[in-house]
Batch of 4 targets.
Target 1
Amino acid sequence: MARRFPGGTLVIATHNPGKLGEFTDLLAPFGAQIVSAAALRLAVPDETGTSFAANAELKARAAAAAAGHPALADDSGLVVPALDGRPGIHSARWAGKAGDFSAAMARIQRELGAATTDRDDRDDRDDRDDRSAWFACALALAWPDGHCEIFEGRVDGTLVWPPRGENGFGYDPMFAANGHGETFGEMAPAAKHGISHRADAFAKLTAACFED
């Protein structure tokens, strides 16, 4: 059985204001006293994991140990099959130290264009025009004693160009979830929270660790 969050202070192990805002909204019904790693001036650990789950876990464990409170960390990113799964766990790195996701989105579009003109058709399948993608999310809830719970979520969709919308963050303006005409960048936050990869993982987390 998963360990229950005991209430009180919960550290959100992020320095990203957009992610902090989403977590604050999602956690509002549960009465946790939210504080960010940025507000506590916690160091950002090197993300040396080879999966979303591994990176989320190392961030959560580091924040919990440093702060002395339970910590919730996320590792998420955009997976593009036509680019062999890139940017994947390196999604944030594609934006560089300045966090320039406009440049990162332009890189994806550019590399998709290169894939479209690449005549090396592996496995005799013509998937060079494939613009499918998914957002993946792993959430890790860690305690100062080292215990950790991990939950994963996903939302599938299509990449659009040019990017649309000023809401959200990261790659949201170029991603439209399956069955939806708006990009995540165009959706109101409440609408995005209802279908996102983070919401999918969060529903599993709260069912196991927060809800009665």
Target 2
Amino acid sequence: MLSKILRFGASLLIVVAVLAICSKVHVNATTAALSLLLAILGISAQWGLAEAMVASVMAVLGFNLLFLPPVGKLTIQDPQNWVALAAFLVTAVTSSQLSARARRRAAEAEARRVEIERLYALVQSMMLTGSARKTIREFVNRAVQVFGCTAAAFYYRPTDEFVRSGPESRVVSDHELLAEAEVDDISVDTLRSVALAPVRLGGRPLGSMALIGSPPSEQMVRAIANLIAITIEKARALEDASHAEAARQSEVLKSALLDSLAHDIKTPLTSIKAAVTSLLENPPEADRELLTIINEEADRLNQLAAEVVEMARIEAGKLHLEKQAVPVSELISGALSDLAMGLKGRPLKLHVPEDLPPAEADRDFAGQVVKQFVENALKYSPEGSPLDISAELKGGKIVIGVADHGPGIEENERSRIFDKFFRGRRHRFDTKGTGMGLAIAKGIVEAHGEKIWVESEPGQGAVFYFSLAASLGGRES
């Protein structure tokens, strides 16, 4: 307040000094008016509009008193001098306003420059953080330092977490931050010196932020909210990418270990199988049953090792296909031939049109999928119940299906039926198997770029399907 009074006093003294100088050297009225205008412009540029207005009034009074006849009196004889006086007053006030406006805009531009520099400093401090949580903590601490606020607070919606710079941030309650996250507008409370803003990215709410104590302008608050949203999303994306890479590396390592272990198991199994096969050619009657059990269990272990190796190759992305035009009837007949022992006594219905074009597929791998479907149907349907195998052309794709008349698959299990090691609730303990067969079949089909699925109703059996591309080259010769 004292400085304001001093500026008004100084403005009046400057006008008085100009009037005194002009009066002493006996300049004409025009020169005096121009001198006063220059003084008023200087006052406006230096201090502002209020000081310039006071100086303008003083200049008008002094100009009337000293330079307009009758000199020495605050009266005007010539009506033309009224026009001159009015023009002087308007010019003085207008020039003061223009000067003050230019000064104000320069101050605003300087304030914006300072805010942008602070925003840049905030960007630099947050860009190197490693996670969304660290980014938010860095923000609430750096916002206080960079923008000179008393405190800052942030509500992160994905984790329902509140982060505060200190106890001073309790001016803004958790409820206020929660409410702000649900709206679109910035809220500035000048009485409390609090700025609240929602933090959104592409319309998706991430949370809300609060700056307490001398917060920056509303435009800057909006810019900070946009910046923190982008920075959080960047940090989250980098974090997800890091986790995905770690998971991929872990999966590759696990697949390599399984592959190595399976090969180590197969070597002694081959020796055991050769030995027991030799003994079974002419076994003692007392040992026949034990040798048969050894032979069957060796086959089971050998099958398990083969499935582990196959699964490891699929998960490591090392399934190399040799596609060719393969008649679908050969895929089906090959699978049925391998499972001839298990199919004894089973009614079998084939629905394969004679004019069906060949499939573009790897013969061995595609045949393995058909074989897995048939094996699955044999395991999960009553002995003696029929199996239906079909193949048809649909939209340029050959769809192969295997239907059984078993108990079917429960609805909540269908989405997981092709997962590795998954076993249905009803058959988890009473059916032999590793739970990898359908997962391997899925990996093979997806390696072909095709789809695999199941259709089932409880009590009505299940139908497993997979598709293969029809060969564009026509039927194989």
Target 3
Amino acid sequence: MSQDSSNYEIILSPQARRALNSLPLNIQQRIDAKILALAENPRPPGVKALQGVRGLLRLRVGEYRVIYRVEDTRLLVIVVQVGHRRNIYRRR
């Protein structure tokens, strides 16, 4: 069995943490599971680059979106923003 040292560390921005904590518990749990899975595979199937903003990726979780950046050299995933699809892109 291989070590977990190749897994990425996940960091949530204060804004992303506040947004996640403000959601209903069942939605928080679904999004949290998807974010934690990024530690093993930061670019899972279905993830797309955010248009117009270099280096940001978008992960769909039902009606919600997780916007994040991957730093491969540091094995780091930085979650920038979490929110409903109708609101998430307005602040970019």
Target 4
Amino acid sequence: MYLGIDIGTSSLKAVLMDRDQRILGSRSAAMEVSRPHPGWSEQDPESWWTACVSVLDALAAAFPREMSAVKGIGLSGHMHGATLLGASDEVLRPCILWNDGRSAEEAREISGPSERITGNIAMPGFTAPKLLWVKRHEPDVFAKVKTVLLPKDYVRLRLTGDKASEMSDSAGTLWLATAERAWSDEMLALTDLDRSAMPELFEGSEATGTLRPELAQRWGMTGKVVLAGGGGDNAASGCGVGAVAPGTGFISIGTSGVVFVTADQYRANPEGAVHAFCHAVPRTWHQMGVALSAAGSLEWLSGVLDEDPGKLVAPLGDRPQGPSSVRFLPYLSGERTPHNDVAIRGAFAGLDAGTGRTDMTQAMLEGVAFSFRDCMDVLTMPLAEPRRLIAVGGGSRSRWWLRVIATVLDLPIAVPEDGDFGAAFGAARLGLCAAEGADPFEVCAPPAIREIVEPIPDLVEPYAAAHAAYRKLYPALKEATPR
């Protein structure tokens, strides 16, 4: 038996998986985000640990025999979070999260070396600029920092006592030389840190340590339980959907949106605000475009109109009839790919007196699809062009949305059979690899596919024209946005 634990922004989820990769059970616990100032986003690391204990307690109560046979645990989590620990591993301040924009100035200062060494623009959401911000604005806290961990690796510390991380999550700190898969002394020095503050690095499928005996006893585990390196949430999702071979990829329609494509070589496109990271499996990298408000845009509109998201989408049916004349720019939290603009905000354009909620819903869904096209257009890995992308995330339940996305990308979208193929499942697969010494490229196979959503041929050109019009709106919106 194997466990996968995913520390999400709004909840922590654990899945229990057997040797045949069947999920026997899962549990989750909600968590809260604090926003003490506009553009800030923080979380108490203790809430991750409390949630972790809660869900594993629940699994142990529901599946005592299966939990007793657990041999490996894999970890996944939201990336870039700055978890600052003191000399006794005490938490010094709330973790600054991936969607926190306070360190925009500090990010600009280190972006040149970051592009050269890591292959990535320094964005305020990444970890390194946050440490510069803490140094300048909270010097008393910075002076006490002895270790910086990512969220999943703080949970690892509580589970095992080990300070360890792996390549995919560490690449998102901007302290990793991505091509070499090693800490960069130059990048660390730019934030007045050195390797003593960094955890030991492993591959995601490697064992990093073993579960503390008192915790194994608490959850009824009778043998040695190893912890896998695991992965950042998107790399772990790649393992979950089998996107580990060159040219494979997925599109995630969660709160944020991701277009993810795998390669066996390192390449970068910082000018396009592409994320060039290590994968969670050895000798493998990936490129990723990130749209900060995907299903989050639907959640926002649902709140504004005081209507259930499903009821907003239902009038659109299953098949798009063509693009709306209304445009929506989904920059509710700024945008990463391709603009790297933390200050930009969303907008509707083309509203008239006859515009109703269904028109606004269609424009919103199309705007997110156009943001995915923006991401796809700047991926430049030297890999075989992906023949399809696998859809994951809550937004993939809308057939109308998937057909629009497939048409806008002019690329088939594969929908897996019913099942959980997300980050927690990918983490469990990595836990299996670490415990059994199994080949991650064999373990992380693609799922059975229920349906292939094809582009609608007669709408490819109309949607391409609508995307071109959408692209013209960003420069005007940027000029009008207060900075």
